[in-house]
Design goal:
Elements (H helix, E strand, L loop, with lengths): L1 H26 L1 E5 L11 H7 L5 E4 L5 E6 L1
Antiparallel strand pairs: 1-3, 2-3
Protein name: Defensin
Keywords: Antimicrobial, Fungicide, Signal
Pfam family, one: Gamma-thionin
Length: 72
């Protein structure tokens, strides 16, 4: 019985550690509207964000505007 509870406790700590790492990884980036992008966004947003806005990446969202993912 003690081995099962110890294994369960170890598994719980592992799950909590992985969950914490995911939250910390996601918290390091934030998405902002591109400052210098003009016109509706259909493609080319990723290139614009990485070269002109010095961001990690970029994407066109549902509202046809360019959103850049930056490190916060």
């Amino acid at each position: 019985m003690e081995k099962k509870s110890l294994a369960g406790l170890c598994f719980l700590f592992l799950v909590l550690f992985v969950a914490q790492e995911i939250v910390v990884t996601e918290a390091k980036t934030c998405e902002n509207l591109a400052d210098k992008y003009r016109g509706p966004c259909f493609s080319g947003c990723d290139t614009h964000c990485t070269t002109k806005e010095h961001a990690v990446s970029g994407r066109c969202r549902d509202d046809f505007r360019c959103w850049c993912t930056k490190r916060c």
